[in-house]
Specification:
There is one protein chain. This protein is mainly alpha-helical and 254 residues long. 61% of the residues lie in helices and 6% in strands. It has eleven helices and five strands; from the N terminus they run H-H-E-E-H-H-H-E-H-H-E-E-H-H-H-H. The strands form two sheets. Strands 3-5-4 form a three-stranded antiparallel β-sheet. It has a two-stranded antiparallel sheet with strand order 1-2. The chain is globular.
């Protein structure tokens, strides 16, 4: 499977799932220059050329997002290239990292860290499982053999799904989708603030009253997506479940 692009994140639709380099960079939240560097460094496959224009697909978008997340975790492009190539070949991640088996069975120490072997074992049924939880931001590497929890709240959400019987593969996919959906909402509201509150502040006298207004606007923009999103999602989910006659019938017998 050499040269294949791993699909790790849900993507939006654009013109039949095709993106120009500008659209790809914008959708991935990066720059055209960064995309070109990824090409130069061999971590991003080339686009499909039609006429004089290169077009990228959803797999390219997923790969760019993955690269960005790994860079955010402090992993250099050379290391990312080696990992991505190995993962695409289907190599064992423990072997890639040079991690030996854990004969002592130490597992997860009390300080919130976990060995790479233990982490890979936990997600052994998930393709590129360790890579995906790192790219998602659930864990971050301390060194080649040890990881630590990076997002405890999101990890607890994953654990809750698994604890009630959702297969770890499906639970992780849903968390990836949820993260991508929330990222899109956050970007929209950040853009909204820049277009409105920030522009108004730039055009003001920038006095104490103007700063107070700016801070109030920022506080509302930060709070609204989470509060309204959680409430709306709960109400819609309840509606869909209530419409499921089979579920309602079983619950009525309780």
């Amino acid at each position: 499977m050499a040269g294949a692009v791993s699909v790790w994140f849900p993507v939006g639709m654009q013109r039949g799932d095709e993106y120009t380099i500008d659209e790809l960079a914008r959708a991935a939240g990066t720059t055209v220059r960064s995309v070109r560097v990824y090409h130069e460094r061999g971590v991003l496959p080339p686009p499909q050329v039609k006429g004089r224009t290169g077009f990228y697909g959803p797999d390219h978008l997923n790969r760019v997002r993955t690269i960005s997340r790994l860079l955010d975790r402090g992993i250099k492009l050379n290391g990312i290239k080696e990992l991505l190539n190995a993962w695409d070949r289907g190599d064992d991640l423990g072997h890639i990292l040079g991690v030996a088996e854990d004969p002592a069975g130490t597992g997860t120490p009390d300080n919130g860290t976990i060995t790479a072997t233990e982490l890979e074992q936990r997600f052994r049924g998930v393709p590129s499982g360790l890579a995906r939880v790192v790219a998602l931001g659930l864990y971050e590497p301390v060194d080649a053999t040890v990881y630590r929890v990076a997002d405890g709240q999101l990890l607890r959400t994953l654990d809750r799904l698994v604890d009630v019987g959702v297969p770890v593969m499906e639970a992780l996919v849903e968390i990836e989708k949820l993260h991508a959906d929330c990222d899109r909402v956050a970007r929209r509201f950040a853009d909204l603030f820049r277009r409105t509150g920030w522009v108004a502040f730039q055009q003001s006298d920038r006095g104490p009253t103007d700063r107070a207004i700016l801070e109030a606007q920022l506080e509302v923009v930060r709070a609204v997506p989470g509060q309204a999103g959680a409430d709306l999602t709960t109400r819609l989910l309840t509606h869909y479940l209530d419409q499921d006659s089979e579920v309602a019938e079983v619950l009525a017998q309780a």
